Amino acid sequence: MTSSGEERRARDESFAREALPWMDDVYRFALSLTRDPADAEDIVQETYLRAFRSWHTFQLGSDARRWLFTICRNVFLRSRERQRFEVDTENGDAEALAAVRVHQQMVDDGTDRLLTRLDLGPAITQALAELEEPFRSAVILVDVEDQSYDAAAEVLGVPIGTVRSRLFRGRRQLQEKLMKYARDAGFAAPDEPQRVTPDA
Amino acid sequence: MPDVPDIDCLTAVRQLWDFLDDELTDERMAMVRQHLAQCRRCLPHHDFAKLFLQAVRATREEHLMPAEAGYTG
After folding, report:
1. Which of A8, A170, B50, B68 could form a disulfide with A139 if both were Cys (CB 3.0 to 4.6 A apart)?
2. Taking CB atoms and an 8 Å cutoff, what residues of chain A touch B24?
3. How far is CA B45 from the centre of its chain?
4. Under DSSP, is residue A69 helix (H, G, I), strand (E, B) or coil?
5. How far is B41 from chain A (nearest CA, A)?
6. Nearest to A28 among B16, B44, B64 (CB)
């Protein structure tokens, strides 16, 4: 075998070893972006095609899953010809405080007990699907796919502060949707409302 | 063991998500942890937020529907 043939075989083997095992994860991420199985499959195929073509740029030993997520996200954005979102300058601290207020409301009306239910998964999945971009991508990457803020920032192509504010707002919106779900499901039956808001 | 500076409730809840995501420096993690151990008002927020994140994370498998779990491209 020629030298170039050996190099090609080594490249194919490293791609199969490093990239292919993440196909289910990439598909799940693509599905969360497109919300359509057929579109997600197209994006996965395009993602892996691009990944294979640029495999020589991948640094072996680095995080292949993160690298594939980045390509997947770019393929999705290009497929939709979406405009890039403006950098969100909203302060994440304000969102963290707003989440505390949502919790207080849920304590007051008894809907906070919802989280102890075992069958909450479908409601959360539905609420996730209803989240608007760019908040949904941030929540999916960090909360569902267990990526760090740094990794999510790289995948989304935005500063960490933007990931943080999008993530916190997305979480607050999720909590508000779950609170509504809980009320609709008849969970709003408070015992003794308990004040837990911080003093400050 | 070095003394950990006290922080107030507002500072603690501002950093609650970062704390739960383990995205604070070691010093700030210790400050929030100490505050939560001492504050009966902030601890419920922490516990609720933690339960919430666990519930969201638990949906990961649901995002991969059974018919698609074996997707191979």
Report:
1. A170
2. none
3. 10
4. helix
5. 5
6. B64
Of the candidates A134, A163, A137, the one whose C-alpha atom is nearest the C-alpha of residue A72 is A137
Q: Is A142 on the interface with B (CB under 8 A)?
A: yes
Looking at residue A87, what is its pLDDT? Answer: 36
pLDDT tens-digit profile of A74-114? Answer: 888 887 754 344 334 456 677 777 777 888 878 777 777 77
Measured between CB atoms, which of A44, A128, A142 is closest to B59?
A128
Instruction: Answer yes or no: is the ipTM higher than 0.85.
Output: no
Q: How close, in Å, is residue B34 to chain A by CA atoms?
A: 16
Q: Which of A48, A72, A43 minimizes the C-alpha distance to A147?
A: A72
* pLDDT for the residue numbered A49: 87
**Are the C-beta atoms of residues A169 and A131 closer than 8 Å to each other?**
no
A–B CB contacts, 8 A cutoff, strictly below? 110
Q: Tell whether the model's pLDDT for residue A185 goes beyond 60.
A: yes
Above pLDDT 70, what percent of chain A? Answer: 84
Name chain A contacts of B69, Cβ cutoff 8 Å: 24
Tell me, yes or no, if the pTM score tops 0.80.
no
Look at phi and psi of residue A146 and say left if phi exceeds 0, alpha if psi is from -120 to 50, else beta.
left
Average pLDDT, chain A: 81
